[in-house]
Amino acid sequence: MFSWVLGSCAKHLASLARLRHKTTQLKMSTSPPPLAAICQLTATPNKEANFSICKKLVEEAKEKGASMAFLPEGFDYIGSSREETLSLSESLAGDTIAGYIKVARQLDVWLSLGGFHEQGPEWEREKRIYNSHIIINNKGDIVSVYRKSHLFDVKLPEKGISLMESDFTLPGPSLVSPVQTPIGKVGLGICYDLRFSELSLALQRSGAEILTYPSAFTVATGAAHWEVLLRARAIETQCFVLAAAQVGQHHEKRASYGHSLAVDPWGEVLADCGGESPAVVLVEVDLDKVRRTRKNMPVQQHRRETAFYHSLE
Predict the structure, then answer these.
(1) Strand stretches in the chain, DSSP E
(2) If you write DSSP's letter for every residue of 51-111 in order, what string do you get?
């Protein structure tokens, strides 16, 4: 009789354990996807003012429940001349990044700092910088640094555009592996990198679920190409694409298009910050959508070997 009671209790406890496990799984499956915040701003040569604005945008993002906030290229400043751009630059150990490390730690939020003017390795001798995309975790650790690969050396006289980034910027030496974050695995690019599909496909093959292109697109190129390029990158990689952008007049010589966007793996625009003013928009990053899209349309499985695509050369 005693052994039967023990056996009955054991079965009951096992049933309770199974019920708890199912309940936990149900809670996990029904918990909402994490939120990403895309921040849009109008940077000027005033670094202190830019930091104050960015801090407020990140605070707003955190208050609204964001796990990670994305800031655009040139979040630290946008200079009005080559000389000013170089004179305001810093190392990763400087005050600007130290300030963002403190913000990330205090707010318990991850940061994508999308285009920092980083003094190059031979700064004292060469006076050249990198355009660096920095990921800081919620503990204040720098977990990844990507240096822009493709530099914007473009002259479009009919559009009034003449920018030669290579006059003061070094091209980054390599891509970096996608970073595991609270919203998923994020592959890093910067602005003009958006035009090179090889980069996005390389990041996707390395495990990226989200691509990010923090930018300061010109008004003319933005109006012509911004949305269509972001949607193309999302569709071809079947990734989310999050693109924080600069907007408006930075100084008398420079203005940016704005329209920070979030695009899902099907190429649908989920959010647009508009082209007028600083803003924050939050989007759910549902990685099940990535998995479903890739399962239902298995593009990567259909891709031929690399040599096939070079067979015409």
Answers:
(1) 35-40, 68-71, 110-119, 129-136, 142-147, 153-156, 161-164, 179-181, 184-188, 210-212, 240-243, 247-251, 254-257, 261-263, 269-272, 279-284
(2) HHHHHHHHHHHHHTT-SEEEE-TTSS---SSHHHHHHT-B-TTSHHHHHHHHHHHHHT-EE
Quick one: DSSP state of residue 222? I
Q: With CA atoms as reference, report the closest residue to 117 among 144, 84, 159, 164.
A: 84
Residue 271: CB atoms within 10 A of its CB come to: 15
Residue-level pLDDT, tens digit, the chain, 313 residues:
544 444 555 555 555 556 565 544 544 457 899 999 999 999 999 999 999 999 999 999 999 999 999 999 999 999 999 999 999 999 999 999 999 999 999 999 999 999 999 999 999 999 999 999 999 999 999 999 999 999 998 888 887 788 889 999 999 999 999 999 999 999 999 999 999 999 999 999 999 999 999 999 999 999 999 999 999 999 999 999 999 999 999 999 899 999 999 999 999 999 999 999 999 999 999 999 999 999 999 999 999 998 999 999 9
Catalytic residues: 73, 148, 191
The helices-and-strands tally (H runs, E runs) of the chain is 11, 16
